Amino acid sequence: MTTATTFPARAAGHWSFLVGGALTLALLIAAGVSLLWTPVSPYVIDVPNKLQLPSAQHWLGTDALGHDVFSMLLVGAQNSILVGVIAVSIGFSIGTALGALAAARGGWLEEAVMRLSDFAFAFPAILTAIMLTALLGPGIVNSILAIGIFNIPIFARVTRGSAKAVWARDFVLAARAVGRDRFGITVTHVLPNVLSILIVQATIQFASAILWEAALSYLGLGTQPPQPSWGRMLNDAQAQLFQAPWLAIPPGLAIMLAVLGLNLLGDGLRDLLDPRLARRR
Amino acid sequence: MSKKAHVIAAALVFALLPAAAKAAKDTLVLGMALEPPGLDPTTGAAAAIGEVTQYNVYEGLTKIEEDGKVTPLLAQSWTVSPDQKTYTFKLQPGVKFQNGEPFTSADVKFTFERDAAADSTNKEKASVFAKIARIDTPDPLTVVLTLKEVNANLLFNLGEDTGAILEPKSAATDATHPVGTGPFAFADWVKGSSITLTKWPGYRAADKIKLDKVTFRFINDPAAQVAAVLAGDVDGFPRFGALDSLKQLQSDPRFTVAIGSTEGKTIVAINNKRKPFDDVRVRRALAYAIDRKAVIAGASNGLGVPIGSHYTPNDPGYIDLTGLYPYDPAKAKALLREAGVKTPLDVTLKLPPPPYARQGGQIVAAELAQVGINAKIENIEWAQWLDGVYKHKNYDLTIVSHVEPRDLAIYADPDFYYQYDSPKFRALMEAVNTAPDEAARLKALAAAQRQLAEDAVNVFLYVLPQVSVAKAELHGLWHNSPIFANDLSAVYWQ
Amino acid sequence: MSAFLLKRFASFLATLACASLVIFLVLEVLPGNAAEVILGPEAPPETVAALAKKLGVDRPPLARYLGWVEGMAEGDFGTSYAYGTPAAALIDQSLALTIPLALIAMALNTALGLALGIFAAARHNRFGDVAVMALSQIGIAIPSFWFAILLILLFAVGLGWLPAGGFPGWSAGLWPGLRALILPAVSLAIVQSAILARVTRSAVLDVLREDFVRTARAKGLSEGQALRRHVLRNALIPIVTIMGLQFSNLLVLTIVVENVFYLPGLGRLILNSIANRDVVVVRDVVMLLAAMVVAVNFVVDLLYAAIDPRLKLRDL
Question: Are residues C127 and C45 in the same domain?
């Protein structure tokens, strides 16, 4: 247990935050670097050099069509982040708005929002993605929409739960007594107080989004070739499982480290941003 | 009973039975990539139908052997008139259908008339059955076919699955419960999983059939095929799809791997009516831009013979046109400039499920990108391909393999999905059909192949190889596929 | 209490109804005439129209929706477009694999998750606890389909002890069938057990701090006895809740894992049906899965409220 009181001081001593932060940073750097440079273009096909072991030219070897695995990994990070950010943003914006509304208004509106979120929980990301694929054909949009839609009820519930607690607090009751309207109170008092919880949730949802994006791409429902995606890399690797088993390691490891990093970061943020909510470590 | 109770009950019952029957020496499990949608080859178009039924459940007048030669089957012998328009078949006596009905010339007449009828959906209606002017049956064992025009391939066509002889009482239900004159009777079809045939004791040469029960298992995914072979879930896989995994199987003494040939012409099909592909220079540019060797190496693990036109080296009169458009990206770019095409040119490349399309497609797209053509890959399912590409011609480029043997005639049809409309080519096909002798016919065939290559109607890639994997003790499976069939009468365990 | 029950049940039915509407609406717009797809492109228009009529594809949408819902209530799930056989038979067949798989995975998950969770709680803040927490963090982050592939690499490719995929069918015997389900079940169970371990640990630690446990210890019961007699029973509430949610999650995750092992279960049925434009089967399976998820959530809500009356009035 640390006795430091300032955020940076506490953060420095909190291993979950540090490790998570480092991994997340690595993920962002990988994606960022790949925007400008990759050792080899991941779109280049080089069949004569297919299924090679790691070498000086190909740091992680090549796949069945001669793509450079390391470059595909870097650009795949872009894909994961893109889907994650957009999907979570969809869930965050719509879900938070609904949850804040439900907490502010109460009554039948709150009932309606809760029932709606119950209903949305019946459609896990995979089912929605399957339906979208049946309708539109496979593609990255399916992943984004499916994961985004499933995130809405999650943010709605978290926001509502925390917002209700804030609404019951003294200074809010005072504001009401003075005559402030609900919208004003929401914006000036409620949202800033639930922000930290939402940030934590968003981080966790980002991790989950990366996981589901990989699953959908693995099934062929998400990002399409030639755009690299970690999930599809795993599927391709499975086709070569008997002659090039090492191909299955890099994409899976990437997914796991990205998800782990974000989960740890989220846990760390939860402890640091709101010590009252800190669980026993 | 609830579903769960069903499962538990079934599990208990089978737990009491002795452990899974080891592959007895007279049962066989064969793997197949695609499940047939029905089991009547005279109404359905899928090659998978013949894979299950041809020469096993049904028989035709003639039989096509593994090397492509035509031999007698239900027709014991035949004579052809000098003008090649009248064929007289003497039928095999003492043949019965699996439902007990005797086989006579009336059944041949019934089948062929049904195949040629206005509402027939037989794949070869236009090219074979509609060309029959008259069918005479002077006696129960003789059939005389009089043709409207010469069809030099008639005897071959009659041995294909579209020429299977059906029996009037069962014809309407053949799609779900096939009845033929062959050595195996239909036993069971577990949709989505397997079809089982059992030996029919009433077959005229039943004592020569060594297998008692054959089950066809549908395994679509190439990696799943590898898993099934290694686990022993299938005894053989006549058309194995995981070409990348062969080394593993070749070095395993439990299995034999045989590499042969099919009639499959793997092509990049071009929509000839769509701009800018209506300009022959643009189509030729595509041919120069694509390196056949790279596609064969990447999509087919190096197996596959390059072709330059819609004809395979196994077919009579084949000429090698692969040298017409060697791999030359610079020339491709020049041709595109000459044709006034603005690069980058955006087109779509629709890819059905098979690996030759999905993997080959990625290679083709990468090569086209080198000459300024952005081919956007769209991975689609067969249902969408049949609907969008084949029927509604809604595509720019697609990759597919045509396995019908000797099917140059499709290019004479301007409505076929390539939308190639060439009076010159039609005249050449006429010449083929009306050729007075074999030499003239071969010459005409050569000219037809050359015309297709010069017009660069499609980019002709390679002949689809047949890779057959089987347990070492299994013998008799075909290693070449002049037609997509599995002649089980020749298969046995050692 | 019964007013609450009625309200929740009505809400459950409403959710199911809305789900069916959404599914029907989304898949109704499915491009491509199913009759055309079955007959093939060469079929003349009259034949296509005749089949469309026979399949009922030509009726107006509302009539079809009502027909579907009515049929489901009676157990008739319609006829598969692709196979021409009753969809119920196809679904039954695939459930014969998916349900046992989910149950085995759930059993493994329960055993492993509870054991690790209790172990960690008992070794609170000591090495055992830290180890379990670290491992569970990793377990939660591992994609189950990747873990499945790694298991295949080790046990099928490397050691050759278990099949790399496929399912011989229950007709091949109970053991061969189970053998094919071992790796899939384990890969599903590992991730879930990581979650369950953490929840179990929290729940147990929460209860351990309660007064009555201190009293039990003061009375002279050993740690183990206290654990067994008092802690578990009270910790069970959040644990059972999570397990319920996990089961519905598992059903959905089996779609992915079935793909890894090429198992002919619900997952492959639905993905194949999409490829075949078999709207009937896709509709039915999506509805089935959604209904199972909703049903499990509903049961969990009931259980939770029944056990803890304080919570019945608050919504979660």
Answer: no
